[in-house]
Specification:
The protein has helices at residues 2-8, 12-20, 27-40, 46-53, 69-84, 98-111, 125-133, 157-170, 186-202, 216-227, 243-255, 273-276, 289-306, and strands at 58-63, 88-93, 115-118, 137-141, 151-155, 175-180, 205-210, 237-240, 265-270, 283-286, 314-317, 320-322. By secondary structure, the chain is an alpha/beta fold. It folds into 3 domains: 2-44, no CATH class; 57-155 and 289-319, 3-Layer(aba) Sandwich (Rossmann fold), CATH 3.40.50; 157-287, 3-Layer(aba) Sandwich (Rossmann fold), CATH 3.40.50. One of its GO terms (molecular function) is transcription cis-regulatory region binding.
Length: 332
C-alpha cells in the first residue's frame, strides 16, 4: 500500500479510500491510484482487512468423509447458503479419522475463521468448547443433542432404523440382519436402536453384522459373512447403516450367487442417487441431505447477525422410506 501511495503521490489513507470508499475520492485521483495498483501488481489482502475489522468472511466446513455422496450433498447445501450471504467456505475432510478431525479444527482456529459447521465423528465437546472460547461460532450437523451449547441439525435416526425394519417385517421377514459400524458412531447406534425396537415389536430376530467402516468394502465383507452362514441361520433381509454398505452388500451377494430380493432383501440409509441407480434399485431411508447443509448454514449466519441475542436451536428432520425393488416383494 505504501508503494502504491508513493507511486500515485497520495497518502496511504487515500489508497484505503479508493479501495473501501471510492465515492470519497476525486475521479482523477482515483484513476491515478488504480493505475498505480495495476503497475505494482498489488492485490489487497482481504483476509487481513477482515481480521483487522474483527469479522472474517470465511467459514470452515468439516465432515466425516467428503467422498460419501451424503456428505457431498450436505456440503453443497451449506456452501450455497453461505455464498448467498457473502461467505466463502473452506472444507476439511476427516476421512473417518478422529485425529484428523482434531487437526482440521486446529487449522480452522489458526485461520481464525468466522464460524464452523461440523459433522463430528464422535463426541467432540472439548473441541467445540475450544472453538467457542476463541469466539468462533459452531453448528453441529448430522447430530442431535439435548444440550443448548450450540445449534444442531440432524435426523431422527432411531425413527429411521425403526421404519426400515418395520417395512421388512411387514413384508414377512422374521430373521433380519443389521449391517453397520463402527459402534462409536452415534448415527450407527441410533439406527440399530430403532431397528431393535421394530424387530422386538414384530417378534422378529435381529442379527448384528459388524462392519469396520461405512463404505462399499464393509458391505462386501458383510456379504461374505452372510454367504458362510448355514441356510437355516441366514437372514432373509438386511438393513444397512448407509447406502454405501448396502451397495457393497448387493455386489457381494450377487457375486456369491445369492439373489436380491428373492434370497435376501436389502434396505439402505441416506437414499443417495446411487441407490436408485443400483443393479437392483435399493430401498433406502431418505435423509434431506442438502436441507441439512442449508439449515446448518442458515443457523450459523443467524448467529453471526444476532450476536448476544441469538438463541441456539436444535432442528430435527424426520426420515422417510423410499421403497424400491430390493425389498418390495413379500416373503412366504
Amino acid at each position: 500500500m505504501r508503494e502504491v501511495a508513493a507511486l500515485a503521490k497520495v497518502s496511504i489513507g487515500t489508497v484505503s479510500n479508493v479501495l473501501n470508499n471510492p465515492d470519497r475520492v476525486l475521479p482523477a485521483t482515483r484513476e491515478r491510484v488504480e493505475r498505480a495498483i495495476a503497475e505494482t501488481g498489488w492485490v489487497p489482502n482481504q483476509q487481513a482487512q477482515q481480521l483487522r475489522a474483527g469479522h472474517g468472511r470465511t467459514v470452515g466446513l468439516a465432515v466425516m468423509d467428503v467422498t460419501n455422496p451424503f456428505f457431498a450433498d450436505l456440503l453443497r447445501g451449506a456452501q450455497s447458503t453461505l455464498s448467498e450471504h457473502g461467505y466463502t467456505a473452506t472444507i476439511g475432510d476427516a476421512d473417518n479419522d478422529p485425529a484428523r478431525q482434531t487437526a482440521i479444527l486446529r487449522s480452522f482456529l489458526e485461520q481464525r475463521v468466522r464460524g464452523v459447521i461440523l459433522g463430528p465423528i464422535g463426541n467432540s465437546p472439548g473441541e467445540v468448547d475450544e472453538l467457542t472460547r476463541a469466539g468462533i461460532h459452531t453448528v453441529l450437523v448430522d447430530r442431535i443433542t439435548t444440550t443448548s451449547e450450540t445449534c444442531t441439525v440432524g435426523v431422527d435416526d432411531v425413527a429411521g432404523g425403526r421404519i426400515a425394519v418395520e417395512h421388512l417385517t411387514e413384508r414377512g421377514h422374521r430373521r433380519i440382519a443389521f449391517a453397520g459400524g463402527p459402534s462409536t458412531l452415534v448415527q450407527v447406534r441410533d439406527r440399530m436402536e430403532g431397528a431393535l425396537q421394530a424387530a422386538e415389536a414384530a417378534g422378529a430376530t435381529l442379527i448384528t453384522i459388524s462392519v469396520p467402516i461405512l463404505e462399499f468394502a464393509g458391505g462386501r465383507r458383510a456379504a461374505d459373512e452372510i454367504a458362510l452362514m448355514p441356510l437355516e441361520e441366514r437372514p432373509t433381509a438386511v438393513f444397512c447403516a448407509n447406502d454405501l454398505v448396502a451397495i457393497g452388500l448387493l455386489q457381494g451377494l450377487i457375486a456369491v450367487g445369492l439373489r436380491v430380493p428373492d434370497d435376501i432383501a436389502i434396505v439402505g440409509y441416506d437414499d443417495i442417487e446411487f441407490a436408485a441407480a443400483a443393479a437392483v434399485p435399493l430401498s433406502s431411508v431418505a435423509q434431506p441431505r442438502r436441507d441439512l447443509g442449508t439449515t446448518a448454514a442458515r443457523l450459523l449466519v443467524a448467529e453471526f447477525e444476532q450476536g448476544a441475542e441469538h438463541r441456539h436451536e436444535a432442528v430435527t428432520f424426520t426420515p422417510e422410506l423410499s421403497v424400491r425393488a430390493s425389498s418390495a416383494h413379500r416373503v412366504n
